[in-house]
């Protein structure tokens, strides 16, 4: 991926309610927590991190509810993203409750709301004008309407010679949809950015199987696969073989919400500037390392 041009992200904008609780949750009573309400969403987060890390122009197509449309639009513009937010009059903006324990790991409660109501009518061919890359949030593929929109965007990008990447987004939702259905839907994408659990699931390999085997297998379906591994960094596979491994930057994690989105944004920004897969993965790891030192999923 070389040359000037915009990054177009099609994905989700949600409201994150992040609850950091140093002590384990106490059933049927109170647990002290630090709670923040923040703008989030995998697609929106990735777009914001890409804008922060040097991409000249980042665009985002997403759907939000009436009640928070202005707040989300302002947050995206302030982050350097050019948003095209479709306002949904029937469903509120999606909400994710992130429960963050002492180890900084998070558990999500997800109400996708308006975000998965994106539909082909929301697409406009002009969104690809001047675009050098299209990135699709995997959450789009977990509902019929938004999956159809994602496939319309993917086909349009392929027709115009615009490369496409996909972040599978959620092992739990992938399992419900079915790995084969997901892989069939993203056929034609050039880059896949799963985490370890998503890679094993998509490759159809059991839990103890080495992630390298899963990455290599997936790269026979999608030419470039970059598997994020948290504190273990990232693994790169191309055309059926492992071609690189990148270490994570050591930091003290506060909240891992959005770390994968930060990696995606950093990786895509670097690719747009001409970086190879390993150099781009290092940029992604730097962004992820910064992300886990702060609360929430945005820069």
Rg (C-alpha, Å): 18 Å
The quaternary organization reads as: single chain
Topology as a string of helices (H) and strands (E) = EEEHEHEEEEHEHHEHHEEEHH
Strand elements, count: 13
The side-by-side strand order for the widest beta sheet comes to 5-4-1-8-9-10-11-12-13
Q: How helix-rich are the residues, as a percent range? A: 25-40%
User: How would a crystallographer describe the biggest sheet?
Assistant: 9 strands, mixed
Distance between the termini: 24 Å
Let me know the average pLDDT. Answer: 93
Shape: globular
Structural class: alpha/beta
Question: What percentage of amino acids are in beta strands?
Answer: 25-35%
Describe the structure.
The relative contact order is 0.16. The protein contains nine helices and 13 strands. Helix 6 packs across helix 7 and helix 8 runs antiparallel to helix 9. It is globular, with a radius of gyration of 18 Å. Strands 5-4-1-8-9-10-11-12-13 form a nine-stranded mixed beta sheet, with helices on both faces. The chain has a four-stranded mixed beta sheet with strand order 3-2-6-7. It is an alpha/beta fold and 299 residues long.
Write the layout of secondary structure elements.
Elements: E1 6-10, E2 14-20, E3 34-40, H1 42-52, E4 58-65, H2 69-78, E5 81-88, E6 94-100, E7 106-111, E8 131-137, H3 144-159, E9 164-167, H4 171-177, H5 179-185, E10 191-192, H6 196-203, H7 211-218, E11 224-228, E12 234-238, E13 241-246, H8 259-272, H9 277-291
Parallel strand pairs: 1-4, 1-8, 2-6, 4-5, 8-9, 9-10, 10-11
Antiparallel strand pairs: 2-3, 6-7, 11-12, 12-13
